[in-house]
Amino acid sequence: MGVRGAGGRVASRQFEALSFDTGAQFFTARSPDFRKQLEEWQASGVVQEWRGRHGRICTEDGTFELLSTSSSGGSGSRGGGGGGSSGFCGSLTGLPLYVGTPTNNALCQQMARQLQEQLGAAEVQSGCIVQSVTRTSGGCGGAGMQWQLRGSRQGRAAAGEPPQPADQQDLGSFDAVILADAMPLIPGSAGHVSGIDQLSTSLAQLARSAQAAAPQACFALMAAFHQPLPGVPFDSATMDPTTTTTTSRGSAAAFQWVACNSSKPGRPIADGGGGAPQCWVALTSPQRTQQLLERHPLMLDGKLVPQTDGYRRAVAAELLADFRALMQPLLQGPLPDPAYCHAQRWGRAFVAQPLGAEFLLLPAQRLALCGDVAAGSSVEAAWRSGRAAGQAVAAMLAASGPAAARAAA
Ligand SMILES: Cc1cc2nc3c(=O)[nH]c(=O)nc-3n(C[C@H](O)[C@H](O)[C@H](O)COP(=O)(O)OP(=O)(O)OC[C@H]3O[C@@H](n4cnc5c(N)ncnc54)[C@H](O)[C@@H]3O)c2cc1C
Fold first, then answer.
1. Residue 398 has pLDDT above 60, yes or no
2. pLDDT above 60: residue 65
3. Which atom of ligand 1 lies at the shortest distance from residue 372's CA?
4. Any idea what DSSP says for residue 182?
5. 180 CB less than 6 Å from ligand 1?
6. Does ligand 1 have an atom closer than 6 angstroms to the CB of 329?
7. DSSP class per residue in 313-378
8. Pocket lining: 81 vs ligand 1, CB cutoff 6 Å
9. Given pLDDT bands bounded at 50, 70 and 90, which one contains residue 40?
10. Where are the alpha helices (DSSP H) in 139-280?
11. Which residues contact 310 (CB under 8 A, 6 or more apart)?
């Protein structure tokens, strides 16, 4: 949420020579249709394979095992945190890992540009937050109903209070709505759309299903060092979250994924020779996330706790200590103090129990729900889900009449 553009959880933070992918770290491609899309992205230069040294840190003794990514693929993971025996988000399945260039989010920006080109006169708006909806008759040649959306075109400042209903702007009227996220249906979430679940019994049922998908939070640590960390034996390492509860060392349990973001293709080169700082990203394990949330809550008195600078600083200090404890035994020399250190909370990072459908469509409401809440936590699943929902809604509108051209997602 907030004032960023297209991208959602495929998010990056980039300024000057620092570059961090703070959400999705990479993606894999299994299905023929997504592989075809991947080839197009590669041809246009917005995606490259990340040929890094990928492996696993043993949570018992802190040693690292290098695992090739060039062997044949496995089954991967689709829900419940980002981890599993196949590594974080399937990083150790043997499938090639792909990243957007120069950042993961650049891929989403490119998709938004292409969509705008395809739509021509119609407007692609990003950075808006929808906060309330009403329905009126009309649309689709006058025979149907329309969704009227209200909210903010400037998004929601990360640390700010949501605007009061009277301050919300009119965002337009639309023949259909595609929810790309469960948040609009979930009271107290950053993207809750007030009243949507009270519009019909089928929407109330959809809201209950979305809440049952059991989202899991996660914190991301971003740290940059003037010199490359000495002797690190990997570019990315995963730890199985199911075995990270009570290790004697304790430190490895803090994270489920640690990666040198600078090792990804297209990022500023960090060779210690006056180039860019070396950038690292670490993502907390479910257990560590839970501990942190007890001290730095997500919700207080039914309201979302904003990620103020103070909130992020406090979390970053704790995570840096975890990072130091994890990395120090693997380094040939002391871990220097970072030149930059920051933290980000993902309140709804992964979906533990996706609804198990590619997408859901309520034709009578002219509303679809897609994304990982339906299809499971991965970039590929979210892409396929969004595309299928878009095609279904377009077909539904085409069948309703020629006037149905505007849809909001
Ligand atoms: C830290 C982290 C690491 C991950 N690592 C990987 C990985 O390495 N590989 C992998 O395949 N997957 C990874 N994932 C999972 C992957 O990122 C997600 O499964 C996928 O991006 C979900 O896409 P989506 O389209 O369903 O949702 P999103 O990308 O979250 O998109 C939903 C959008 O809806 C917007 N929205 C919600 N409510 C409103 C509203 N009221 N008004 C306006 N907009 C609204 C949100 O702001 C967001 O932009 C990771 C996720 C996280 C959080």
1. yes
2. yes
3. 26
4. S
5. yes
6. no
7. HHHHHHHHHHHHHHHGGGSSSPPPPPSEEEEEEEEEEEESS--SSS-EEEGGGTEEE-SHHHH-SS
8. no
9. very high
10. 201-211
11. none
